[in-house]
Amino acid sequence: MVNKEKVNTVDINTLQSVLKNGKTRKARQTIKKILKKPLDENTAASLTRLCIENALGEETILAFSQILKLNPTYAQEVIAIQQTPPFNTDPQLALQLMRVAIEAQPNNVSVQLKLVDVLLLNGILDESEQRLLPLVNTQHAVEALARLSETYYRANRLHEALAASQLSTELEPNNDALYKNLGITQVALGRFTDAAKSHHKAISLNPDNYYSHINLSQLALMIGEFKLGWAENEWRFKDKTITQLNFPCPLWRGEPLNGKSIILWGDQGLGDHIMYSRLISNVLEQGASITLLIDHRLTPLYQRSFKSVNVVALSQTNVALISSQTHDFHLSLGSLPQYFIHSFEDIQPCKPFLLCHETQFEKFKNGLPKKAASITHIGFSWRGGSFGTRKQSRTIPLAMWEALFNREDLQFYNLQYDSSPEEKAILDSKGVITPSFDVRNDIEALSAFMCAIDCLLSADNSTVHLSGALGVNTFVLLPASAEWRWFTDPDQSLWYESVSLIRQPPDSNWEQPMRTAEKKIEALINSANEPTP
After folding, report:
1. Which segments carry the TPR repeats (predicted)?
2. Is 413 helix (H, G, I), strand (E, B) or coil?
3. SS3 content of the chain, % helix, strand, coil (to 5)
4. d(CA 283, CA 303)
5. Which pLDDT score is estimated for 70?
6. Distance in angstroms (rounded) separating the CA atoms of residues 439 and 444
């Protein structure tokens, strides 16, 4: 008689080998064969983990369902792997897994709370609230209130978020994470003094929590306390997602640069690369020669725009090459402001400092559709950020744009770098054109295209930094809980002279900002039609 456990172990080993060799199709076939056999709990657990680690979609759900039939308490195990795929790469698959888990363990509070985390990841806020409210009056009140505050914050229900945060700190006054959340909500409501107290309290309870230092940094920068803000901003390097490079030469700490060579390198997102690049001219004015390591997508654009700078694509190979050369100093772009920006006067809106590709610009300009005698061409994008930067609050639903799409005198272009095929199809049905180039990766084409159209109307994302640096007329739709970089001025960016801000009021939706956006577009059209004196 064949030993079933031994056969299943062999099958699992076969599956591991197939996955190691990258044969996904064969792996799926192997999984289906395994699932047809009787499984013991250990084998089912191994199969589930393999499926999860390799993000095998449908097979993951099938394997997970199988083990829950053998042992419903295994639903708890999914929480232990929440930092691995699919939880940090595939939110929808993570949600499917958690729905299977909660069906098997409907009264397991740990599973309930993890389901809420995944609901937040997917922006499903109503269900998140519904699942949390019954837990507020239980022994799990603090955990529920913390997530409820996050739910309300993402829904722009800021006063309710504040109430939930305050109650959580009263119940657990020594929890630094709760004060961190409270401070973030207080900032969004403009209660800066209270927010500073909350952030300092969080740091006093846990001095090594870099999130609290970053939150204090962002508050300080928002209100103009630049010395504190830039110093606290250095805590960002504790975040493993931030690029940190080490070179044989020392970090620059403000020493004279005349006749010296310095390596500058981008350490954050594409928008940060662009925003801080305005300070390259400050370094050049000090007499330094610069080698700039920048996101490879920006390399051609920067080589054209900074002709006296040695612009190199940021890659392991180039880092190794530059490390072998002789330089006097190095510094990240994100650390430059502490030496050049000491007050709001140091951030006067700058003129365009990036130059698009002239030939591509002419091609796009001549290729724009002319469906009417006078038409305004508008690029748009409707979301920005990530889960960590509250993507939900920086998303304007496509339904809110319909009135603008329906106007005969406006032609819209989809410049959302992560738009799905389904979203593109919806936009196509509304007459919105999606350009043929890769909006996310072909920055050369994107920059030329944006210079060819009349303006950009966008949520807060990296595209607005590119358009601002190019000098394109830009209107940025900001949530009530806007990023620190937009400071507190009601309608003008301090970073770029061509960028105007449209702010969402607290505890409201996007209706008013969208009406304001239409008025600003009308004003732009009218000014363009005015006769030149």
Report:
1. 142-175, 176-209
2. strand
3. 55, 10, 35
4. 17
5. 62
6. 10
